[in-house]
Amino acid sequence: MSVVKREGTIAAIATAPGRGGVGVIRISGSNLLPFAFALTGKTPKPRYATLADFKAADGSTIDSGLLIYFPNPQSFTGEDVLELQGHGGPVVMKMLLARCLDLGARLAEPGEFSRRAFLNGKMDLAQAEAVADLIDAATASAARSAVRSLQGEFSRAIGELNDELINLRMLVEATLDFPEEDIDFLQAANAFGRLERLQLKLAEIFDRAGQGKLLQSGLHVVLAGQPNVGKSSLLNRLAGDDLAIVTPIAGTTRDALRSTIQIEGIPLHIIDTAGLRETDDEVEKIGIERSWKEIERSDVVLLLVDARTGVSDADREILSRLPETLQRITIYNKIDLAGRAAERHDESDGVAISLSAKANQGMDLLRQELLRIAGWHQAEDVFIARERHLRALALAQEHVAAARSVVEGFVPALELFAEELRLAQQALGEITGEFTADDLLGVIFSRFCIGK
Ligand SMILES: Nc1nc2c(c(=O)[nH]1)N(C=O)[C@@H](CNc1ccc(C(=O)N[C@@H](CCC(=O)O)C(=O)O)cc1)CN2
Ligand SMILES: Nc1nc2c(ncn2[C@@H]2O[C@H](COP(=O)(O)OP(=O)(O)OP(=O)(O)O)[C@@H](O)[C@H]2O)c(=O)[nH]1
Ligand SMILES: [Mg+2]
């Protein structure tokens, strides 16, 4: 239960904080014409830009800007919406916002405009999430996929699966009315073939959504290893910039340093860490603790090793401490000093790549391997998706598979079959928000930025 009242007129600065040519304040609620009149002395023509003075309570002018009135239900939220497009200075924007609050609006919570748009049926949940994901997109590919979801492509795909589930359920209901003939009935309607097709389609959408999730959140890659093996040099090489300090002194890096790069549109969050070793240096010790924390929350660890010495006992010690679930690539760095060629090869415990961060050798092998580990294989028609969507799709897949094994059983239990189909449909409904609990909605929208 939220204590915040959800109704009422809300206002927020919609543009990014800081200075800008133009700044926008968005207001959503009901009966906003009097509000507009009180602020400007004008009654704006719907959906036209009206030049107006935005007045303070004492009649002085705060700013002179454009006023746009979107009467309900034709607006972003489906309510009355007013937009004040003023000059984009932080002080003038704050003064304008304060004036809106004086006039009876309250500050919008994060995501509250989008939440209202969702509740008023302007978009479904997957589309609302796509709005936030578009704003957060780290690469152009991610942005393109987000727009695809925003325009309803993901929702339509889910809708098609849903329709097929409804058809199958109707078929079962009809069959249940004629219990003697159930098997023949299902066979005549090709229920088996349709289930199989549904499974294929679900698998395909799961795959596209998985790619979308990858585009959205990318991969967290941590560089780990003993001091001086070249972790910071590798970060700099991947980022194409001198971000981290590199010296021949062991124990140079203390704070974890991060940089987001992209490979074929996939955001990779690379984290350089302090070299792992036993040390009496207090500062370095803290750095090493931080390294382990970063390692534990990453998706992939690149374990760097000096190509001249190979995997040492100290490296094996590090390896034994790596979490089981973590994907790992062993990197033999400094091949230029070892007289070895850049290559990728399989070792008993995973893939290894020999390269030189400093001499820029073997870097493409590493990039390709990172994409492979990420599971990236598709560049077209991806829709942006989140972990939440993948879980719902996986659940739907489980129930459809269960439905199939029921129907293929020796004595098919039709009630059970129908129930599995219903559960599959419910799982899909969570994606679009048809069956989504209120508290989950709260969590989803609270992660949006303010003014969205
Ligand atoms: N100035 C401004 N630009 C913006 C937004 C905004 O709120 N204000 N948006 C904020 O995200 C996005 C555009 N989203 C919008 C979505 C729907 C409607 C709207 O008025 N819909 C009506 C009418 C549709 C029509 O005329 O075709 C409706 O759905 O009934 C407006 C903006 C991006 N650019
Ligand atoms: N020849 C050669 N030298 C390298 C290579 N990579 C790194 N080095 C050198 O090795 C030294 C250590 O490199 P760093 O990148 O600072 O190593 P690090 O693993 O970050 O070290 P710490 O931060 O102390 O843990 C520097 O002198 C680098 O120039 C390489 O591929 N070839
Ligand atoms: Mg370093």
Short account of what is shown:
GTP binds at residues 228-233, 247-253, 272-275. 46% of the residues lie in helices and 19% in strands. It has 452 residues and is α/β, with parallel strands linked by helices.
How would you sum up this structure, described in words?
The chain is built from 16 helices and 13 strands. Helix 4 runs antiparallel to helix 5, helix 6 (153-176) runs antiparallel to helix 7 (182-188) and helix 8 runs antiparallel to helix 14. The chain has 452 residues and is an alpha/beta fold. It is flat. A seven-stranded mixed beta sheet has the order 8-9-7-10-11-13-12, with helices on both faces. Bound molecules: the ligand Nc1nc2c(c(=O)[nH]1)N(C=O)[C@@H](CNc1ccc(C(=O)N[C@@H](CCC(=O)O)C(=O)O)cc1)CN2, guanosine-5'-triphosphate (GTP) and magnesium ion.
